[in-house]
Write a structure and sequence with these properties.
The complex is a heterodimer. Chain A is mainly alpha-helical. Chain A contains eleven helices and no strands. Chain B is an all-alpha fold. Classes of the chains: A mainly alpha, B mainly alpha.
Chain lengths: ~250, ~90
C-alpha cells in the first residue's frame, strides 16, 4: 500500500493529529491487512535493533578479550613443595643459578631491543589518541557521533560512521584519520596504513598522515617495517611536517 | 523513538492484535533478507534504529537533505517487505 509505511511511521513518530491517531488505532483492530503492515514495521525495527546490539556486543567482547589479554598477571601464593629426593650439592645449585641469570639477562636484552619501537608507537597512541576531541557545540553531527563511539572504545561502531563519511565525501581528512585510528586500535595495521597513506597524500596545511604511518609500521613491527618507519620519520623531520618533534626524538632511539 | 517504547503507544486492544503478529518467525525472515535489500538500505535502517535522525544520516552519507533520506529509507522498508513476503 503506497504511503502506508509513511503513515505507520508518522504514528510512532507522534506526528499525526489526534483524529488521525484514533483512526490508526481503530484500523489496527478492524483491518487485518493494515494490522499486518503495522506488525511488519514493528518487527523490522525490532530485527534492526537486535542486529545493532549484536554488532555492539561483538565489538565489546573484542574489547573485553583485549583487556583480559593485557591484564597484569598476578602470581598466586602456592603451598611449599617439599621434595623427598636427596638435595643436590651446593656446586650444582650455583651452576643452576648462574645459568638462570644468564638466560634472564639475554631474554631481557632481546625483549628490550625487539619491542622498543613497539613501545614508542604504543605510548604515542595511548597519550595522543586514546580519546579524540569531542566538540560540545550544539548539534550532533556525524563526526561527533563517531568520535563519541571511539572515545567509548566502540571502534567497530565508530568505523561505521567514519567509513560512511569517507565513502560519500572522500575529501574529508578527519574521516580518513579517525578511520585509520580505529583500525590501529583494532590492530588492523594493513587497513590503518591504507587510511594514513591516503591522508598523507592529501594537500593539507597540517597533515599527520606520515607520522601516523610511521607509528603504524613501528607497532606492526614486521621485517622491514622499522627501516620504512625511519625513512618516513626522516621525511617528517626534514620537511617539518606534523609530528616532527616526535620524529627527531624517536630517530635517536630507534 | 526507540522501538521498545513505540509499541506502548498503542492502546491495549490494538497492541494485543499487533503483538500476536510480531512473531519470532517474522523477525527471522526479515533478518534473512537484510543482505538482499543491499548494503545502502541496510545501512540506512541500522542508522535510523541507532537513534540518528534523517538529518544526521543525510550528513553522514552525503544525501542532499533529510527528506531524501526519509524517502529512501521508506522505500527500503517497502523493498524489504517485498522480499520477505515474496
Amino acid at each position: 500500500m503506497p504511503g502506508t509505511v509513511e503513515f505507520i511511521e508518522s504514528y510512532f513518530q507522534q506526528t499525526l493529529s489526534s483524529e488521525e491517531r484514533a483512526a490508526f488505532e481503530l484500523r489496527c483492530t478492524t483491518d487485518e491487512v493494515f494490522a499486518e503492515e503495522v506488525a511488519f514495521y514493528i518487527a523490522t525495527r525490532q530485527a534492526m535493533r537486535e542486529e545493532l546490539l549484536m554488532q555492539k556486543v561483538k565489538a565489546w567482547k573484542t574489547e573485553d578479550n583485549d583487556e583480559v589479554k593485557n591484564a597484569p598477571v598476578i602470581a598466586e601464593e602456592s603451598a611449599q613443595v617439599i621434595s623427598m629426593r636427596k638435595k643436590p650439592g651446593i656446586i650444582r645449585w650455583v651452576s643452576y643459578a648462574a645459568a638462570a641469570c644468564l638466560i634472564l639477562i639475554i631474554s631481557m636484552f632481546l625483549f628490550e631491543t625487539r619491542s622498543a619501537s613497539e613501545k614508542l608507537a604504543a605510548n604515542y597512541i595511548n597519550t595522543k589518541y586514546e580519546r579524540l576531541y569531542q566538540s560540545m557545540s550544539g548539534g550532533q553531527d556525524s563526526i561527533q557521533t563517531g568520535i563519541a563511539a571511539y572515545n567509548a572504545k566502540h571502534y567497530d561502531s565508530a568505523l561505521i560512521y567514519f567509513k560512511g563519511i569517507e565513502t560519500r565525501n572522500p575529501d574529508n581528512d578527519d574521516a580518513k584519520k579517525y578511520a585509520g585510528l580505529c583500525y590501529l586500535q583494532q590492530k588492523d595495521y594493513d587497513n590503518a596504513l591504507k587510511e594514513f597513506d591516503a591522508l598523507a597524500a592529501m594537500d593539507l596545511r597540517i597533515n599527520s598522515g606520515n607520522i601516523l604511518k610511521a607509528v603504524t609500521l613501528l607497532e606492526r613491527n614486521n621485517p622491514g617495517d622499522k627501516e620504512e618507519a625511519r625513512k618516513i620519520l626522516n621525511i617528517v623531520g626534514d620537511e617539518k611536517l606534523d609530528g616532527s618533534e616526535e620524529a627527531a626524538e624517536w630517530l635517536k632511539k630507534l | 523513538m526507540p522501538v521498545a517504547d513505540a509499541m506502548n503507544q498503542l492502546p491495549d486492544n490494538a497492541k494485543n492484535v499487533i503483538e500476536k503478529l510480531v512473531t519470532n518467525e517474522l523477525k527471522a525472515r526479515i533478518k534473512s533478507q537484510l543482505e538482499a535489500i543491499g548494503q545502502k538500505c541496510k545501512e540506512l535502517l541500522l542508522m535510523f534504529e541507532d537513534g540518528l535522525t534523517d538529518k544526521e544520516i543525510a550528513e553522514i552519507l552525503s544525501y542532499n537533505n533529510a527528506a531524501v533520506v526519509k524517502t529512501t529509507r521508506l522505500r527500503c522498508l517497502d523493498k524489504l517487505r517485498e522480499k520477505v513476503t515474496g
